[in-house]
């Protein structure tokens, strides 16, 4: 039963007709000149406009279904739902929603494994509440995809695509794994790639980035890059200011001490950045420089004993990129 497609994958922003998007207002030339490239793109990007409309739909769906979903879990005697302040389906906390819909339950005893939880949930709720469970799945998926638009979610939770990639796309034991489409998988891989780079602080992000660059490298697509860079390029925390705090590779004492991305992942990272660089206009390449700097630093990584991560010959080959040359010139 867990390998059967029980639910549809409904992505709110993909349901929006592009022709319904409002055209940007005409601005006087003086105001246009005062806008940064980032601000201009945020005003014009169809993808980012669709996200804003999708967030409005998410709020409408929550308003219509939150009470019924909460009552459904109260019926199953889930104690958190007896607390009126605990409303993950209303607050956009996709990780809590998916734990209730897919297990493992956060408070169940260790003797209750995920498969048992899923089977119990399906036998209790699926026959009479399929539509409501579908709504719960819709809200969970879309809140993860729209996490950066939800003010109630902390910065630590704004990695929704990373979470979905790990807990649905790469998890064959998920009830929702059979619902995944190739298009959805590619989207998550590309969004998660940039989410990791903007918040590369934990081992989890390194492992996700490693898997993307080695196992799913061919699904990385430059056409997704600009939207994601502009989307996550928080003006209050530009990548230029935080790139020095993130290292793709680090080492302290010999080859065995190196941590971070594998040599193959670093190599593929450089290849993909070069693809993005070649697809960008001259002005847009400015936004890519911090990520290229991270790459150069990884290729040139030397530990405290002066042992390099790559040989001198490998370094020369890996740094022979147009994007790297531009950094040298500046």
Model description:
The protein has 330 residues and is an all-alpha fold. The chain contains 15 helices and two strands. It has helices spanning 29-34, 37-44, 46-75, 88-91, 94-102, 114-145, 160-169, 182-198, 203-215, 225-232, 239-242, 263-279, 289-299, 312-318, 322-329; strands spanning 249-250, 259-260. A two-stranded antiparallel ribbon has the order 1-2. A hairpin with an 8-residue loop joins strand 1 (249-250) and strand 2 (259-260). The longest helix has 32 residues, at 114-145. Mean pLDDT is 86; it is low at 27-35 and 236-244.
Quick structural gist:
This protein is mostly helical. Helices cover 56% and strands 1% of the residues.
Low-confidence parts: 27-35, 236-244
Backbone CA Rg: 22 Å
Number of separate helices: 15
Overall, the morphology is globular
Class per helix and strand makeup? mainly alpha
Proportion of residues in helical segments:
55-70%
Q: Give the end-to-end Cα distance, rounded to a whole number of Å.
A: 58 Å
Number of beta strands: 2
User: Overall mean pLDDT score?
Assistant: 86
Q: Give the ordered list of helices and strands.
A: HHHHHHHHHHHEEHHHH
Report the sheet-strand fraction.
Answer: under 5%
Sheet of most strands: 2 strands, antiparallel
Q: Write out the strand line-up for the largest beta sheet, numbering strands in chain order.
A: 1-2
């Amino acid at each position: 039963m867990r390998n059967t497609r029980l639910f549809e994958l409904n992505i709110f922003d993909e349901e929006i007709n592009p022709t319904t998007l409002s055209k940007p207002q005409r601005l006087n030339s003086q105001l246009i000149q005062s806008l940064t490239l980032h601000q201009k793109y945020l005003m014009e990007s169809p993808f980012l406009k669709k996200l804003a409309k999708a967030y409005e739909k998410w709020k409408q769906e929550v308003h219509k279904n939150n009470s019924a979903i909460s009552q459904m879990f109260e019926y199953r005697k889930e104690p958190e739902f007896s607390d009126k302040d605990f409303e993950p389906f209303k607050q956009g906390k996709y990780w809590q929603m998916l734990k209730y819909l897919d297990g493992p339950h956060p408070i169940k005893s260790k003797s209750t494994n995920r498969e048992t939880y899923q089977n119990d949930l399906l036998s209790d709720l699926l026959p009479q509440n399929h539509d409501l469970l579908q709504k719960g799945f819709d809200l969970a998926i879309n809140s993860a995809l729209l996490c950066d638009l939800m003010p109630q979610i902390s910065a630590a939770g704004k990695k929704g695509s990373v979470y979905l990639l790990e807990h649905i796309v790469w998890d064959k034991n998920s009830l929702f794994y059979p619902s995944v489409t190739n298009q959805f998988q590619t989207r998550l891989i590309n969004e998660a790639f940039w989410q990791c780079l903007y918040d590369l602080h934990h081992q989890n992000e390194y492992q996700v980035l490693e898997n993307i660059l080695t196992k799913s490298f061919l699904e990385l697509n430059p056409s997704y890059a600009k939207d994601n860079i502009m989307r996550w390029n928080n003006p209050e925390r530009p990548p230029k200011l935080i790139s020095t705090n993130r290292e793709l590779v680090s080492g302290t004492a010999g080859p065995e001490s190196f941590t971070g991305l594998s040599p193959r992942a670093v190599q593929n990272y450089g290849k993909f950045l070069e693809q993005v660089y070649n697809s960008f206009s001259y002005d847009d390449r400015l936004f890519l420089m911090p990520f290229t700097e991270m790459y150069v630093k990884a290729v040139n990584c030397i530990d405290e004993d002066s042992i390099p991560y790559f040989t001198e010959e490998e370094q020369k080959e890996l740094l022979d990129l147009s994007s790297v040359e531009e950094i040298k010139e500046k």
